[in-house]
């Protein structure tokens, strides 16, 4: 049993606590449930009590001497951030593509010429499982240093059974060996591998008949994602893959309407996807369909910035009643970052989310997008003690002083892991 920890005198303790369960929409995204001079008692990996410093001082009067006491005076305290969309497990690096894009090439030009996802796929196939583990572990350390305590991770750089499984096994091992919680998504339909060019449906057959059954059998993933995009997988092919996953118990997610408007958001609503990702080019009908079905929009403003594209219509989506989450999209091509604080800043600057909405999108709604909201995403008694202390005194400053890592310390399951 670990020693009890008492964090006291937080200038703002942002709990995001609520009676309401499930993804938050509209005004509910701004209800942060803040406690001034806040205090929190952690023990046995769990949050045992929350209140003002005075309240907990009385409640634990006879135990305070034996607890580790953290004075959070002048500091903001929030739940650990959750990143619900990453491609963090991969081999190699693609800085040359960054230069190519600055010289005028587009993301799809590079991919169609055998670079992009195909380049990372080659490097991921070549690298040993151990090497990928070690590289990914470093990225997870960086996430943690930026206040992120849970992430989703996708396969999708294998594009063959063996390497897709290799990526998912790396995630399983990281879940055991790294403090970060990592929720695995199978994304065998991330691209059509070059040896299947012109035989796209045969690759879909392979995903449906071989990869998905194996992934489900070995319980290697919780979600099933598809890159539904012009020149990648059509809405029909995407639907087939997502429905096949559903029958095996994998919940659908979709990379939708990123480069072109292609009916991805509408498909997400139709198949009952938990979330649709990117949505830079989503149609008005797509937004309405997502609002109606409660599909979470997982928006990736760092990717839009990095590809020098206009950001998604986050403000409009919230106003239309779509629950919004935000994410780094951490990947070696379109968004090589692990900074959720930067993503929160960008959600405000480029999508006009308010600081409060941005924080909800990076914590509670993000947890909902990967179905871990019962455990994390808000500070409530009985939940996992995943907590960040920030070197700013209120949540607006966290968003206002941008491009800076304000993390003071990070607690994962009640244990200090950063700071
Ligand atoms: O979400 N859009 C497709 N997939 C990733 C990029 C992957 C890559 O370029 O390696 C994304 O942006
Ligand atoms: Fe992605």
UniProtKB/TrEMBL annotation:
Co-factor: note: Binds 1 zinc or iron ion per subunit.
Pfam families listed in its UniProt record: Amidohydro_1 (PF01979)
Binding-site residues, 4-imidazolone-5-propanoate: 94, 157, 190, 258, 334
Any one of the GO BP annotations: L-histidine catabolic process to glutamate and formamide
PANTHER family in the record: IMIDAZOLONEPROPIONASE, IMIDAZOLONEPROPIONASE-RELATED
Name recorded for this polypeptide: Imidazolonepropionase
Annotated residues for binding of N-formimidoyl-L-glutamate: 157, 331, 333
Protein residues bound to Fe(3+): 85, 87, 255, 329
Catalytic reaction list: 4-imidazolone-5-propanoate + H2O = N-formimidoyl-L-glutamate
Record domain Amidohydrolase-related: where: 76-415
Source organism of this protein record: Psychrobacillus psychrotolerans
């Amino acid at each position: 049993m670990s020693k009890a920890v008492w964090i006291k005198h937080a200038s703002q303790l942002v709990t995001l606590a609520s009676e309401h369960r499930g993804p938050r929409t509209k005004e509910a995204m701004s209800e942060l449930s803040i406690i001034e001079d806040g205090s929190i008692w952690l023990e046995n990996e769990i949050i045992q009590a929350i209140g003002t410093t005075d309240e907990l001082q009385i409640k634990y009067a006879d135990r305070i001497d034996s607890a580790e006491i953290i004075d959070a005076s002048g500091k903001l305290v929030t739940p650990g951030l959750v990143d619900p969309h990453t491609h963090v497990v991969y081999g190699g690096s693609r800085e040359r593509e960054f230069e190519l894009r600055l010289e005028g090439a587009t993301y799809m030009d590079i991919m169609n010429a055998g670079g992009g996802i195909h380049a990372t796929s080659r490097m991921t196939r070549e690298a040993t499982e151990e090497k990928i583990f070690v590289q990914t572990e470093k990225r997870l350390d960086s996430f943690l240093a930026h206040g992120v305590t849970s992430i989703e991770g996708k396969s999708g750089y294998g594009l063959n059974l063996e390497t897709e499984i290799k990526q998912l096994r790396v995630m399983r091992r990281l879940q055991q060996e790294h403090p970060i919680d990592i929720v695995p998504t199978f994304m065998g339909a991330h691209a059509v591998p070059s040896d299947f060019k012109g035989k796209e449906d045969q690759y879909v057959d392979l995903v449906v008949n071989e990869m998905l059954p194996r992934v489900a059998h070995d319980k290697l993933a919780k979600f099933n994602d598809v890159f539904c995009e012009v020149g990648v997988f059509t809405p029909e092919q995407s639907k087939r893959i997502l429905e096949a996953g559903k029958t095996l118990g994998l919940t659908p997610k979709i990379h939708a309407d990123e480069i072109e408007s292609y009916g991805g958001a509408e498909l997400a609503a139709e198949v009952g996807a938990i979330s649709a990702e990117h949505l830079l080019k989503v149609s008005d009908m797509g937004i309405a369909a997502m609002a109606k079905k409660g599909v979470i929009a997982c928006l990736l403003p760092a990717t839009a910035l990095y590809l020098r594209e206009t950001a998604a219509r986050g403000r409009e989506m919230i106003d239309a009643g779509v629950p919004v989450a935000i994410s780094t999209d951490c990947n070696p091509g379109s968004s090589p970052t692990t900074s959720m604080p930067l993503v929160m800043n960008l959600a405000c600057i480029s999508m006009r989310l308010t600081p409060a909405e941005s924080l909800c999108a990076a914590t509670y709604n993000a947890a909902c997008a990967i179905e871990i909201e019962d455990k994390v995403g808000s500070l409530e008694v009985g939940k996992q003690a995943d907590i960040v202390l920030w070197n700013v005194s209120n949540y607006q400053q966290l968003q206002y002083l941008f491009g800076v890592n304000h993390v003071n310390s990070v607690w994962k399951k009640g244990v200090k892991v950063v700071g």
